[in-house]
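Bench notes, afternoon.
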Amino acid sequence: MELLATLRRRLLLSPFRHAIVDDLREWRGIDLLVASWHLQRAIANTSSAKRVGILLPTGALFPIAVMACWALGRTIIPINYLLSRADLEHVVRDSGIDACITVGPMLEFMGGLPEGVKEIRVDQMRFKGIPPISFANPLKSEDLAVILYTSGTSGKPKGVMLTVGNVQSNLRQIRGWVRFDSTDVMLGVLPQFHSFGLTVLTLMPLSIGCKVIYTAKFVPRKLLDLALKYKPTAFVAIPSMYNALRLVRDADAKCFASLRFAVSGGEPLAQSVFEGFRDRFGIEINEGYGLTETSPVSHWCRPHEQKRGWVGRPIPEVIVRIVGADGRDLGPDEDGEVRLSGPNIMRGYLNLPEESAAAFDDRGFFRTGDMGRQDKEGRLAITGRLKEMLIIAGENVFPREIEEVLNQHESVKDSAVIGVSDPSRGEVALAFVEMKEGATFDENAIKAHCRGKLASFKVPREIRVIDALPRNATGKIMRRKLSPTTGVVTDSSQTS
């Protein structure tokens, strides 16, 4: 059964059951279907392009827009509402959209749409009455379902082309591996323009018929209140969100007592965050791994397979290679580049044939650009990004190892490490830290902490305090926006 038919069938099985609760209202299955049919007609009357933009906050309107576009055989282009104007215009030109489904507050926030892109204002539509119903399902497995633009952490956003088959495969893989079912209640705040938010937090609950609670803006105390009210069994978030939740003062320790799964993805989960959340709420966070190019999930650590610091085993049908610098396959516990194969791997990058070809090796495996190792049971540990690796005095050093130690210091909220040139060692580590509220920055004390846990050459040459580390829309730190000129060297007596 094709993806759109699966979503419709699930909603029709329980048409009067509340499928979604968001910041606007509660939505029954029939409400979602009727709204998507109305929106489908509006799209058909406005746009003639093969692709349609979606610029919406997290909530029910997003899956409504997805179903409406797919019913017309259109590919969706989810738009990151935190893009710069230049990147937004690049996405519009590159994707070829001529219309965008959106709401007034988003248009105001973005300063309007680029010239030539028509607005389809879903917030001005009245979803009253049942329009002529069509169960057409024009998109087939090999057709493009979505083009997701990368966050641009390493340059101009690239359009990742995912087919219906890619997305449907990943949903099937996740369901079979994690055993989510229609009795689950999911809670999430991830942006739906992101691959993790689209697949895991939007399409998966709809495809299995479970209830999902959305809130568009991450406000830690509000999220804790929602957890107490709706008693979710699954919570999907990123490490920075878990970190913020554990730091909420006077939070009820029972907020997450109903959880079966607390899942983290998007970036590595620091040990300090894992332990802090567990100690505060009594729940162990399970890590997953994947990339936009893998639809996105390739690995998922199930609760009974928890191994701290590892992201779990590959989900069904995913094949993993760990490849050394010389191109040979490495054995257990050897560090190399993680390469993946499976039905969930992207078709390629839109309008970038050379980059698409370079993304795969001669055996057809996708080059993730992540460094990692597997244990004998097939669990994967991510050790760093190949492009971010530092070479200090001839030794390979990954920022994550240093950041893990920095984040264990009692005064440090979060950190990021980059390499800077050094005439004697080639490179040395430069660290940037966000301090916890009320904490005093003491560079010497933090360095002493590092010396007790790291080899001497890995200890940062300099540590700078920074008000806020640069992040993308999902909270991932953007190291490329840090440089030797970022921040100010702060005297040890200065308070953050």
